[in-house]
Amino acid sequence: MTTATLAGTTVELDAEGFFAEPETWTEAMAVELAHAEGIDELTDQHWTVIHFMRSEYFAKGTGPTVRALGKSSGVSVKELYQLFPKGPAKMAARIAGIPKPKGCI
Amino acid sequence: MAHRIVILGAGTGGTLVANRLRRRYSPAEATITVVDQDDRHVYQPGLLFVPFGLTHAEDIVRPRGKQLRGAIGYHQSAIDRVDLESDTVHLVDGTDLAYDVLVVATGTRLVPEETEGLTGPGWREKVFDFYSLEGASALAGALAHFERGRLVVNVVDMPIKCPIAPLEFVFLADWYFHERGIRDQVTITYATPLDAAFTKPVASATLGSLLVEKGIEIVPEFNTGEVDGAGGRLIAYDEREIPFDLAVVVPLHGGAAYVERSGDLGDELGFVPADPHTLRSVAAPNVFVIGDAAAIPTSKAGSVTHFEGETVEENVVRFLAGEPLEAGFDGHANCFIETGFKKALLIDFNYETEPLAGHFPLAVGLPLLKESRLNHLGKLMFQWIYWHSLLPGRDLPGLGAAMPTAGKSGLPTA
Question: Which residues of B touch A72 (CB under 8 A)?
Fold first, then answer.
């Protein structure tokens, strides 16, 4: 567990840089996190995905996989990779301030 | 009045739960009806061996109805939908089945058409799957004529059945080309969406070093967006490409099609969310789920289904008696991993515990996480056990549902 200062607030991150306490996330932090991932500006589509990730996490206890995102977020898998080139599920989870999606075993 | 138990699917899970429940209730106490759309019960672990000519399609298929005990009704029809409000299953042949308890055991459905180009030009000529009888048989022909070039084995995305099978496939391919004396003419590449060889870190390290030893190239985090069969290329969403002369692709999996037509029963992929310990559907109190059809955090594999059987049987009985359910299932999975040259590894894990080294099920037993001939024999013997002991729903000696810990090293101390 490490800490980081985002938008002036100290937050807890896990070993891979995902939020340990998703409740502490704010939209201002997302902007900073996106910059760190190489995304200069968060578009409306980015925000759609970010909010969808969070609502899925709070409803189900884990963030969605890319396939589930493509089926239910309203953004296609192809577009998801354009928005979050380094792997939509992980990258969007990091920016959305939720733990790494558990995915499939 | 007799309880009405309806079981959807006559594969591993549906068959063994039907047989277990039949022993718990006399026909006067409960009617048991099993539904499936065809009469071909495939021993799915056998599919891995078909492409290499080690077994044949007809040797791993038996009629579904014959695997069920007497006094179990077998109804062959596709399923239209489940109406959770009225506790009724509507079948495509027009039959309506009312139930007091429903068990969903319809496994997964391969959806290769969801990947751009996969079923286009080159499908079943240069591009194959081995997760279906037809695919595995067609691939046997193509492999027999493969003399040189690049074989790419690709998992499009998780979840898939038996997540270890694609790795076993590359291990066996390595052995197969050695046997034919052309291993030096063939490049074998394993392209996976995972960040390493397998989903579980400890086992992943062991399997990753086996790939290196065998000279198999791994391309991690490869998310296939398109298959260009005519041009012989896999294209990832991030625009990386892998050329191939022969591609063996594990297609996307979804749940059975009727699940999507059944209200809140399934998730966006058509799998059925359930409590991971009681295996009761989150959508309705009188619906239980077993096997690959379930959206729970364990592998989609026959061993898991087998271990779930005890819990589903017990909870159906408890539910019908108005008793609290048993949170009995621990996520136990157990897989023999063929590594070629008549050897195999064995791994054993559950929701909480990684696959560890040691022996199974006790300190004297099959070696875990280590190649051995004994494990290979275990894998071969398993087909007999499957038809004669697992499907009839008998408890296997030394192989209870809960994960054993006696022979393992490196277990965290509680």
Answer: 268
Nearest Cβ partner for B199 among A68, A85, A105: A105
Model confidence pLDDT, tens digit, residues B54-76? 999 999 999 999 999 999 999 99
User: What is the C-alpha separation between B370 and B345, in angstroms, rounded?
Assistant: 5
Contact A82, A70 (CB under 8 A): no
Q: What pLDDT score does B26 carry?
A: 97
* pLDDT single digits (tens) A5-57: 998 999 999 888 899 999 999 999 999 999 999 999 999 999 999 999 999 99
- Please provide the CATH number assigned to the domain covering B112-249: 3.50.50.60
Cβ <8 Å between A72 and B268: yes
Model confidence at B413: pLDDT above 70: no
What global pTM score does this model have? 0.92
Domain boundaries, chain B: 3-107+256-320, 112-249, 332-414
Q: Report residue B250: phi and psi, to 5°.
A: -90, 110
Q: Is A104 a catalytic residue?
A: yes
Q: Domain B3-107+256-320, what fold?
A: FAD/NAD(P)-binding domain (3.50.50)
Please enumerate residues of B whose Cβ is less than 8 A from a Cβ of A. 157-160, 163, 199-200, 221, 223, 225, 237-238, 252, 267-269, 297-299
Instruction: Give residue for tokens 């022993």.
Output: B23
Decide: B189 and B199 in contact? Cβ < 8 Å: no
- The beta-carbon neighbor of A71 closest among B158, B160, B269 is B269
Q: Amino acid identity, residue B203?
A: A
